[in-house]
């Protein structure tokens, strides 16, 4: 019997049991799609976070004041960072630079646009050291002694879905909330190129002013945080321990590299757990294949007897039934791969990598991650369901091939 005849008979057998075959293949598709989507999305999350860490540098620590929480969800700042702390940390061995900054949420308004973003006050000369690869689209950095000058992120200057766009030397209004509520006007001196997120901040939705301007605007001499840069990446752990030893629980020190390791560990465990659910779906589908083929063997007992009486060998009968499982695995694997490709982008849009969903005028591309599809992952998504289907159909096909022709012909 030719191979193409074997598969023609297998297709006919599957068509004769349309609903049963469809449900079996659907189970394979779901399991394959879930596994592909979860692995691709978690890989994309790890790659995205790694890219963010690379922007801030592996030799950078972020130091902020620790907060103590009380009943009812209220909190009070137990320690406030000042210039004295900048000088203290500069004296630690292995520290090359300490960059203080102010940070506060703000509403940026100009023309018909009102954009929720972040205000950062920092020494302009330190910006390019803080954010690797940051560049100006046009204009210049704000002058340290010009309290009305500002540089804005790309999404503020060119908001999505708006015809109003910022130009150099245009005025914009900033409204702050909290204890420093109020509105001030700034003159745009520079516009940054599209950059994306860095850990908890979206640079494209940020307005930068000088450190002196922020101190006046926020009416405080205490910094929101400090960027501590070490001489080499190898010094990060030592410097972090020295800061934590010196300040105790008064400050919180974040190591971007450690954060990346923690996130990768969490995503790996999440992928393993959820991927196992997808694997369970495949094994449930395998049970369905086994059941479907056993029923098929019972229904076609007389047919098997006739084939054997006509001279069909056991391996030919085995191949005929096993080809049904192979076809189910192929169709389920291909369909599951396509479904998983679409599903991975849906999951990618929902993962909180970017700290929230895009609001009016914000750049939606910075709030999603891109799933990563490797050739190995695609091959696994296609071949694993086929392997499961073949294993599930092997025993029923073997039973059919070992059936006695005389007994099969007498079967009612």
What does this structure look like?
- Helix content is 51%, strand content 20%.
- By secondary structure, the chain is an alpha+beta fold.
- The chain folds into 2 domains: 3-53 and 261-410, no CATH class; 60-231, no CATH class.
- The protein has a 6-stranded mixed barrel with strand order 4-5-12-7-9-8. A two-stranded antiparallel sheet has the order 2-3. The protein has a two-stranded antiparallel sheet with strand order 10-11.
- The chain is elongated, with a radius of gyration of 31 Å.
- The protein starts with a helix and ends with a helix.
- The model is unreliable at 68-75 and 352-367 (pLDDT under 50).
SSE inventory with pairings:
Elements: H1 3-16, H2 18-56, E1 60-65, E2 67-69, E3 75-77, H3 83-90, E4 95-110, E5 113-122, H4 127-130, E6 136-139, E7 149-152, H5 154-157, E8 171-176, E9 182-192, E10 197-198, E11 201-202, E12 206-209, H6 211-218, E13 225-230, H7 236-247, E14 251-255, H8 256-299, H9 301-309, H10 314-350, H11 375-401, H12 405-410
Parallel strand pairs: 5-12, 7-9
Antiparallel strand pairs: 1-13, 1-14, 2-3, 4-5, 4-8, 4-13, 6-9, 7-12, 8-9, 10-11
Describe this structure in a few short sentences.
The protein has 412 residues and is an alpha+beta fold. 51% of the residues lie in helices and 20% in strands.
